[in-house]
């Protein structure tokens, strides 16, 4: 059971004034699907780059099974990183790129690759640089699902994909994961499409981890409380408020934590919050400070 650990990590870029990542402590366990969320510029890609040793920490370290990943071929061979950079020879046909990948990874899953090529209707005789943005992502997705690595990091994998192809991707990811469990770390802004798929959620805001829990735990402690302002304010007074919207005398207050051990007042409705709404609330710091 392998594990990636990020310990006391800080990152700033040489010419940047600010720290991009601040005192990050996180672990990514075996066989889980992590959603990595945060607003534009929060530091998600930087974190993924650090895990895959594309850049190095200013302080702290990233380890895989207690070994620093930096310049560590053994550790890095267990990590596959799909991102927006095109690492493939631009003028090669897709078929050749698949062959090159297969020659690097001994247990590369050619059967799955062929199945995915058909599902996505990818023409493997096309040169990579002639593909549309969506199909470039599809080539990378196929490779990411077929390489025999224990940790698959996907930075905005569905960039440019239409709704049908996004649906195929999610279904194939789940099927592939069920057959061959491994760890996925997926960064995306389309939270509502993957919230049912992720087992764990990590959210970064202002370079810090602000949420790191299982999806089940988060769902079990995030609620919307709606009703007359005075009743809702009283019912939620000891809870951590993450969002608030009011319409006249009626208010919806989003909270995190255990609900009070008392009867919900008549006229007040308590519902669970969707992950998407929770993340947006957490991004919206003003909302969190409203109460
Ligand atoms: N090589 C670099 N040099 C200087 N600053 C950088 C570099 N790479 C990233 N940054 C800065 O680090 C911050 C975080 O960027 P990062 O790409 O990690 O965010 P992100 O959460 O992935 O954003 P997005 O969702 O928009 O892709 C940004 O302010 C960005 O400008």
UniProtKB/TrEMBL annotation:
Q: Which Pfam families match?
A: ABC_tran
Which molecular function terms from Gene Ontology are attached?
ATP binding
- List UniProt keywords, sorted A-Z: ATP-binding, Nucleotide-binding
Q: Which SUPFAM superfamilies match?
A: P-loop containing nucleoside triphosphate hydrolases (SSF52540)
**This protein's name:** ABC transporter ATP-binding protein
Give the ABC transporter domain ranges: 4-231
What high-level taxonomic lineage is stated for the organism?
A: Bacteria, Bacillati, Bacillota, Bacilli, Lactobacillales
Its source organism is: Apilactobacillus apisilvae
